[in-house]
Amino acid sequence: MNKIHPGNNFVFTGICIPDREVSYISLFTAMLMSRRPAWQLNVVNRCCPQKCTAYDLRNFWEDDVIQLRPAWLCVLVGIDDVRKWIRRENDWKEYAPGPFLSHYDYLIGRAKDQCGSRIILLDPFLIAAPHEENWTDQIFAELPAYYRAMAALSRKYNAIRVPLQTIFQRQFQHRPCNDFRQYPDIPNALGHLVVAEAMFQAIR
Amino acid sequence: MNRTYTFLFIGDSLTDVGRVGGENAPLGRGYPRLVRDLLVARHPEKRLAVINKGLSGNTIANLAARWKIDVLHQRPDWLGILIGANDIGYVLQKWEGWQDHTPSAYGKHYENILAQTRRHLPHCHITLMEPFYLTVDRSANQRAKVRRGLRAYRDIVRAMSRRFKTECISFQPLFDQQLRAHGMRTFTLDGAHPNLNGAMLMADRILSVIEPLIKKPL
Lengths: 204, 218
What we know:
The complex is a heterodimer.
Chain A: E1 9-15, H1 24-35, E2 42-48, H2 54-64, E3 72-76, H3 79-87, H4 97-115, E4 118-122, H5 134-157, E5 160-162, H6 164-172, E6 181-183, E7 186-187, H7 189-203
Parallel strand pairs in A: 1-2, 1-3, 3-4, 4-5
Antiparallel strand pairs in A: 6-7
Helix pairs in contact in A: 1-7, 2-4, 3-5, 4-5
Chain B: E1 5-11, H1 13-16, H2 31-42, E2 48-54, H3 60-70, E3 78-82, H4 85-93, H5 103-120, E4 125-129, H6 142-163, E5 167-169, H7 171-182, H8 196-214
Parallel strand pairs in B: 1-2, 1-3, 3-4, 4-5
Helix pairs in contact in B: 2-8, 3-5, 4-6, 5-6
């Protein structure tokens, strides 16, 4: 049952994708207003201004999420975990798929226990073709392990998982990656809309 | 191989929204852009082209003057027309040449462009969009006058739609309902130009007309 009741806080958190004028959050908000005006959701953007991992989110979670008591919580995190894991950056062991799962599990568990939130998990994604660049290929090689972690979380918490990489791959069969991106990790307006529309289709 | 389905939007600043030059060219960042993006998101396999010929400040007379090049020569499969906000501006402000923008003159120009379109593009699907104004003001103030004054123009658009057997979209009641619930500023800053929320409302309504068409083979 994916019911949304009037007056709900709908909280977005996780990585903040830079945008020029529209973001998947503003587009999703406009879609809700246009298509489901009776829901009267209060959309709150609590995405992190800097690079953000599941490990980092633990620091923000009480202030940015739990205090808002979201009825719906949408999280996009993971791509910076993969990057830091590959580069062996500071605290790199915290970003491996195993710790990623346990940090993410802690976060979602808190939201479920404290707020009873319905959860939407957005898969981390890259808007890139195979063999385009070394760094994108490195990330593509690691992503399946993180997706398995998300699948486990989705099952455990009955969360709605939005498979954004799969959705973009379907688009790439018909249009080049450049139609959807500023950079491989930053969508353009069309890329943001693809994300927002996928989210809306997932919760409707 | 399916051929490309071409959609063309024409109108004034509500359609233009920065389509000429800059990073938002050639579609602008208004409702035509959202229609294109939503079509791509929902129907990636379809071959679609969306053309925006909106031009800020235009009236129906301006559209008539550029109709041949900007519409007939483009040979669209679907055509959407939204015009009238500047015509009523001329009439209310009594700007020079205002007589060419009264509802009666508006109707004559509208009839002319639709007759041309039916003659030259007999298979083109046409959707007329009634002009609208976003305010909850029902007093004697300027905004309320614009909204009230547009009623005569909307009546003409509806009559044209019946006569030329086109689709017709009434945005005014759709927005009126939303404005009552969420307030004017949620959808527009100035009453005339929809923001992202307003543009999404328009795009969703237009898609309800377009999506059944693209599901049929050309």
